[in-house]
Design brief:
Strand content: 15-25%
Helix content: 25-40%
CATH topology: Beta-Lactamase
Low-confidence stretches: none
Radius of gyration: 13 Å
Number of strands: 4
Distance between the termini: 14 Å
Strand order of the largest sheet: 2-1-4-3
Order of helices and strands: HEEHHEEH
Structural class: alpha+beta
Number of domains: 1
InterPro entries: GlcG_carb_metab_protein (IPR052517), PduO/GlcC-like (IPR005624), PduO/GlcC-like_sf (IPR038084)
CATH architecture: 2-Layer Sandwich
């Protein structure tokens, strides 16, 4: 079975939280399933309220296009092939770092989205979470 479980999501979030604590930046961390539906979300103490929605939408974006959001962002700048993509899907598309697809046995089974710090901080925390799967 390749579907992500709540136990998987909790393990992914725990690894991401550990990295966020290590770098001293409270984060919002979201995990979605293969359909882009939220499985679990954590708002660490002190993390920005505005980043709740962003973290969930980063996870959705990463799964919707099976791409890291930082890479989508690189390709969505003026003059590039995905310019304007952030306006699609009722504005849910996030084009900055912190969304990473989650794969098992070579198949994308969901994604993690992290928000609350700089793009680099969000990305390193998301990668730590993804590494737990």
């Amino acid at each position: 079975m390749n579907a992500l479980t709540l136990a998987d999501a909790r393990s992914i979030i725990a690894a991401a939280e550990a990295r966020a604590e290590e770098i001293g930046q409270p984060m919002n961390i979201a995990v979605v399933d293969a359909g882009g539906n939220l499985i679990s979300h954590v708002r660490m103490d002190g993390a920005w309220l505005g980043s709740i929605d962003i973290s969930i939408n980063k996870a959705f974006t990463s799964r919707a296009f099976d791409i890291q959001t930082k890479d989508l962002g690189d390709n969505s700048q003026p003059g590039n092939q995905f310019y304007g993509i952030h306006a699609s899907n009722h504005g849910r598309i996030m084009i900055f770092a912190g969304g990473v697809p989650l794969s098992r046995d070579g198949q994308v089974v969901g994604a993690i989205g992290v928000s609350g710090g700089s793009g680099e901080q969000d990305q390193t925390v998301a990668e730590a979470g993804a590494g737990a799967l």
